[in-house]
Design goal:
The protein has 9 helices and 13 strands. By secondary structure, it is α/β, with parallel strands linked by helices. A 9-stranded mixed β-sheet has the order 5-4-1-8-9-10-11-12-13, sandwiched between helices. The chain is globular and about 50 Å long.
């Protein structure tokens, strides 16, 4: 894959993952069936996903001066990502405590650690020169995300904002965003409780939702719907302003980080010049393949693996993006 440079600005976390038959209820203690410490963090995951798919990626972030920081820098660099702008700071690296049940579903709690030190001043406009896509999430301070979005906008890049974990962002950041990527719950929160239509709803229902996003300054929105696939809302595409993307179905083992694989794949394909709907179709396959293995970054597919899956088709067994 060739294409313009991708700048990912945001989080790196050590994933402390325990596997169990099912997720515990409040106040309940369960026996686990395995434990692993893996590299993660939404931004690092998205950078690795894009890098493994052939993207030219620069990651801006911060880790602690500890073993977890060493692990994260090594893993991200191993995917071909430029990590020269990942700072080492005093204090611990960010962590995510993750429980994964046998079905592949998970629950996650994050502690920011070094991610909380990533400041707007770290978003040097020179780092964004020549970027085609800037990929952002909300695991670092919101003012830092705004600064990165402004730098990307000023550089003429496509600003891709993954509104996760959800936080109110205000119209300022929304209007700096070229492509908003949200799941149905995040979309509803962003639109003040407006429920998203079902995947098989009439196009008119999705056009109404698109109008609500447009009122917030967002003309391109990608809504993921779990096992039902995703929907692309693109007001600039007069011929197809709503495109429903069928889910890619596989046997899911661990869905942790599959959404980041999806986001990184969208970024990679946008940087390569794909239209948003084509990028979403490709990302559906990449995210599904990521869910067939345990862990996050180590589970992310290469471009060759995605191409082979697209060529061969995939079994209809069910997973979520």
């Amino acid at each position: 894959m060739t294409g313009s440079r991708i700048v990912v600005a945001g989080s790196l976390n050590a994933d402390l993952t325990i596997y169990c038959e099912r997720l515990p209820r409040p106040g309940e203690t369960l026996h686990g069936s395995g434990f692993a410490v893996n590299p993660g963090g939404k931004s690092a995951n998205q950078a690795v996903a894009a890098g493994r798919l052939g993207g030219r990626v620069t990651l801006i972030g911060a880790v602690g001066r500890d073993a977890n920081g060493d692990m994260l820098v090594a893993s991200t660099a191993g995917a071909g990502v430029d990590v020269s702008h990942v700072r080492r700071v005093d204090g611990p690296t960010g962590v995510a405590v993750i429980s994964v049940e046998d079905s592949g579903e998970n629950s996650i709690i994050i502690s920011a650690g070094a991610n909380g030190t990533l400041s707007p001043e770290a978003m040097d406009p020179a780092l964004f020169d020549g970027a085609g896509v800037v990929c952002l999430c909300l695991e670092v301070p919101l003012e830092t995300v705004r600064a990165a979005a402004q730098a990307g906008h000023d550089a003429g890049a496509t600003v891709l904002l993954n509104l996760s974990p959800y936080a109110p962002v205000g119209d300022g950041l929304a209007r700096l965003t070229d492509v908003l990527l949200v799941n149905a719950h995040e979309a509803s929160q962003f639109l003040d409780g407006l429920a998203m239509p079902a995947a098989d709803a009439p196009v008119s229902d999705w056009l109404a939702a698109a109008g609500q996003f447009g009122g917030r300054g967002l003309d391109k929105v990608l809504v993921t719907l779990g096992a039902a696939g995703s929907v692309v809302l693109d007001a600039a595409n007069a011929a197809e302003p709503v495109v429903c993307i069928a889910p890619t179905r596989v046997d899911a083992v661990d869905t942790t980080g599959a959404g980041d694989a999806f986001t990184g794949a969208v970024a990679a394909r946008l940087a390569a010049g794909d239209a948003l709907a084509d990028a979403a179709r490709y990302a559906s396959v990449a995210a599904a393949l990521a869910a067939t293995k345990k862990g996050t970054q180590a589970a992310y597919p290469s471009a060759e693996e995605v191409s082979a899956a697209v060529a061969a088709g995939t079994p209809d067994d069910g997973t979520e993006n």
